[in-house]
Amino acid sequence: MSFFGFGQSAEVEILLSDAESRKRAEHKTEDGKKEKYFLFYDGETVSGKVSLALKNPNKRLEHQGIKIEFIGQIELYYDRGNHHEFVSLVKDLARPGEFTQSQTFDFEFTHVEKPYESYTGQNVKLRYFLRATISRRLNDVVKEMDIVVHTLSTYPELNSSIKMEVGIEDCLHIEFEYNKSKYHLKDVIVGKIYFLLVRIKIKHMEIDIIKRETTGTGPNVYHENDTIAKYEIMDGAPVRGESIPIRLFLAGYELTPTMRDINKKFSVRYYLNLVLIDEEERRYFKQQEVVLWRKGDIVRKSMSHQAAIASQRFEGSSSHPEARTPGQPSDNNSRQ
Amino acid sequence: MSDAAVADTRRLNSKPQDLTDAYGPPSNFLEIDIFNPQTVGVGRARFTTYEVRMRTNLPIFKLKESCVRRRYSDFEWLKNELERDSKIVVPPLPGKALKRQLPFRGDEGIFEESFIEERRQGLEQFINKIAGHPLAQNERCLHMFLQEETIDRNYVPGKWLSSPGLTVCLPSLSLTLGHTVGTLLRSSSLKRGRKLRAEGLGF
């Protein structure tokens, strides 16, 4: 970002004030690599300092202003030019002038709203980041620092089991049951498949977890399906009256919470696909949506918003703010 | 709402299985054998027929045991009928072996023993694959092929109505048919006065 050997340039670094104590979480980048980023929750303060180091200690650095921004944005891969910013905060750190020596500037974004979870998908990316900018006449010096945001929920009040009888007339009748309709990311799916009628030669049965990422609106809706897991639950031919148990531990898979219509831009939903395969490789299947939610490590029950802010002031930013209940259609996730 | 530290992974309650169900014959018995090839006719009018013997306990087949004689062109007819009328991806037949029908061959051509055996195996695989397909079992042509003495090529193609009963219309499982997906409703699921739902393709 500077002319080679020409004039003065600076190195910009962003440092968080609680870098020592703040937890970091792994998050996949666009090219599939896993990296660790500082983890934040909704309502937490983002504070730290921007350090400016002059490359040439003897020369001056002229600039048109220094600022730091906190941005939350959604980027659709097929429309890279347009970033949809749903959070945009800015703090000016220095007015236009010049520097003769390296300096640091403190900043604080208080109780920042972070309504959605960070997400890197097949066709869309939602990210939060700090961006420090030294404006200059010809080219700016910019430094970005990504953070990761998790959205937490509490145990839902209503979590009925899913129980259904399905079939192909005169051919295959089964009753499947899953113990819940909403599962947290470290939960266990406990269920069973009961065979009422078996007139085909079944070879084996599996349960798949399918992630469906939906981008676009109206006639341009695009669904990207990805099979996250395939788990065989039965090998061999069942007969009438047999009950096959299901026990599927979700912690071993790369899952995110269910995201419904995030900022009206995208959704991520999960489905359990029960598949029976017969001797001739014909596949009989039934798909069922399940809602996934993220459980906080330390969940404080019935904590009011005020109490959450208050505890932050005293305990620092490692406390977890108020948690929400997951998965209702008219949910917090559709916050403007 | 209790905040369980460890998830409850105990099995869900289920009805104990009836022992007659557990140890009785399975309701999916279907075996078709193709054997006893016989070459009939003389000279250039010769052709080979095969015995197609079927044993089953599936209620959709009228006869629990049947035995008919079919030739290769009958299998071709069945394949064409199914490709036209049903939505299934029909498995391939063993080859037509046109080269073997050319003159001036050193061997018996299509009446060569090894070739007939090869063809017999291919036909057996073909018919077993088809007869077990729930959608093919709905087609009249399959039942005529397997269980009627002769194939009436002037028949009226259509769906096979097994003994109509008051069967309940269940929410369906989906069945992948090669590359297409459909939910299957048999014609026997007609309830008195109730219209048959159209089979939907696409998922």
Mean pLDDT of chain A: 87
Output the number of helix runs of chain B: 4
What fraction of the residues of chain B are assigned to beta strands by DSSP?
15-25%
CATH fold name of the domain at 23-147 in chain B: PX Domain
The CATH topology of the largest domain in chain A turns out to be Immunoglobulin-like
Subunit organisation of the chains? heterodimer
* Number of strand elements of chain B: 5
Number of extended strands of chain A = 22
Short description, anyone?
Chain A has 336 residues and is mainly β.
Would you mind describing this structure in some detail?
The complex is a heterodimer of chains A (336) and B (203). By secondary structure, chain A is mainly beta. Chain A has 2 domains: 10-149, Immunoglobulin-like; 162-293, Immunoglobulin-like (Sandwich). Helix content of chain A is 3%, strand content 53%. In chain A, the strands form 5 sheets. In chain A, strands 2, 3, 6, 7, 10, 11 and 12 form a 7-stranded mixed β-sheet that branches. In chain A, strands 15, 17, 18, 20, 21 and 22 form a 6-stranded mixed β-sheet that branches. Chain A has a 4-stranded antiparallel β-sheet with strand order 13-14-16-19, with no helix packed on it. Chain B has helices at 19-23, 72-85, 113-131, 140-147; strands at residues 30-40, 47-56, 65-71, 174-177, 180-183. The radius of gyration of chain B is 23 Å and the shape is elongated. A 3-stranded antiparallel β-sheet of chain B has the order 1-2-3. A two-stranded antiparallel sheet of chain B has the order 4-5. Chain B is built from 4 helices and 5 strands. Chain B is α+β, with helices and mostly antiparallel strands. Classes of the chains: A mainly beta (336), B alpha+beta (203). Chain A: Residues 327-336 have a biased composition (Polar residues). Chain A: Residues 309-336 are annotated as: Disordered. Chain A: This is VPS26 retromer complex component B. Chain A: Belongs to the VPS26 family.
